[in-house]
Amino acid sequence: MNKIEHIGIAVKDMDVSCDLYEKLLGTSCYKKEEVASEGVNTAFFRTGVNKIELLTATSAESPIAKFLEKRGEGIHHIAFDVENIVAEMARLKQEGFVLLNESPKRGADNKLVCFVHPKGTNGVLIELCQDIK
Length: 133
Description:
By secondary structure, the chain is an alpha+beta fold.
């Protein structure tokens, strides 16, 4: 794993939360995107070399809707940039981690992604991210 790629934050209202983070970070959202396969809308902020991703549900069945219902707004995941997501997934499986998907899938911000089950990572949902070239 190369670096933290972004921190994902689950929010109930994207417009209200975008306004809040624009004021907090002193910068505008640089990208909004729907990821239909995950049932989420995303908004990205960049501050220095760091990125924040806001996530809101587009349906009551989405993982974010379930997260918000169970835990409320807050940090949803930490994403790590990787060179080769397939190799990193194989390494983590060999180490005994449980992956939430068997193969990488397309995520927001032009990435291939895979999630690591939080039961094996001290309750933290980990996302692996590889740039799509």
